[in-house]
């Protein structure tokens, strides 16, 4: 049986992906990739190519190929990084097994800003993903002329359960993209509890479910099916 729900950009969503949004469940790479595509190509399409959102699958490949052997160029050049990129956001997963589909146990967000060349890591569960973020930063820095791979661990509100990490990544990505759209390179990177927290990420879970439903309905109306 064909369990496809939605083809959206480079992402294919299936019923099992959407079911995760009924919670309490851990978001997978497909859902994070969908929201990243939505932010980059719909909400902030006018910022292209200054804005880059790299989903977990691409960030994992980047870290796996490493800084040597042209790994950064293989993964990042098709996305135009560094090129004209001013703000890059990477979805970080702590999976290290290339044979483990949807492996790992935690999501976090790594941000790079051209304005100061800094990598900033946002982790809603302390420093669990610090090593994973460092691997991605080291690989990405290989594409930056004289770029530093040093990662600043950015203070942020912490999750209150074991399954909302992916939603924190999406909430942070939306917030940072919005700031860049409003303030450009002068954007701030500090995160307040009033901006991202348990209530807002819980609402985002429902919002994401409704967004996917709306895209499915629109595709059906346009004759694309589901």
Automatic annotation (TrEMBL):
Domain of life (superkingdom): Eukaryota
Gene Ontology biological-process entries: protein deneddylation; proteolysis
Protein name: NEDD8-specific protease 1
Upper lineage: Eukaryota, Viridiplantae, Chlorophyta, core chlorophytes, Trebouxiophyceae
Protein biosynthesis in keyword set: no
Record-linked PROSITE patterns: ULP_PROTEASE (PS50600)
Alphabetical keyword list: Hydrolase, Protease, Thiol protease
Membership in a protein family: Belongs to the peptidase C48 family.
Any Pfam family hit: Peptidase_C48
InterPro entries from the UniProt entry: Nep1/2-like, Papain-like_cys_pep_sf, Peptidase_C48_C
Residues annotated as domain Ubiquitin-like protease family profile: 11-176
PANTHER family noted in UniProt: SENTRIN-SPECIFIC PROTEASE 8 (PTHR46468)
GO molecular function: cysteine-type peptidase activity; deNEDDylase activity
């Amino acid at each position: 049986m064909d369990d496809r729900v939605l083809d959206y950009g480079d992402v294919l969503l299936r019923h099992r992906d959407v079911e995760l949004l009924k919670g309490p469940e851990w978001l997978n790479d497909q859902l994070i990739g969908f929201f990243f595509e939505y932010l980059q190509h719909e909400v902030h399409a006018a910022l292209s190519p200054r804005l880059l959102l790299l989903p977990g699958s691409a960030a994992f490949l980047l870290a796996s190929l490493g800084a040597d052997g042209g790994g950064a160029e293989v993964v990042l050049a098709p996305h135009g990084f560094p090129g004209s990129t001013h703000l890059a956001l990477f979805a970080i997963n702590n999976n290290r097994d290339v044979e483990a589909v949807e492996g790992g146990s935690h999501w976090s967000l790594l941000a790079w800003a051209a304005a100061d060349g800094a990598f900033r890591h946002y982790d809603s569960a302390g420093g669990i993903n610090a090593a994973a973020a460092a691997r991605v930063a080291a690989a990405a820095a290989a594409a930056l002329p004289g770029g530093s791979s040093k990662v600043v661990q950015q203070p942020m509100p912490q999750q209150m359960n074991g399954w909302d990490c992916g939603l924190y990544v999406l909430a942070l990505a939306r917030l940072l993209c919005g700031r860049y759209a409003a303030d450009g390179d002068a954007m701030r990177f500090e995160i307040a509890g009033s901006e991202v927290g348990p209530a807002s990420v819980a609402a985002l879970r429902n919002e994401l479910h409704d967004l996917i439903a709306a895209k499915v309905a629109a595709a059906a109306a346009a004759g694309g099916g589901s």
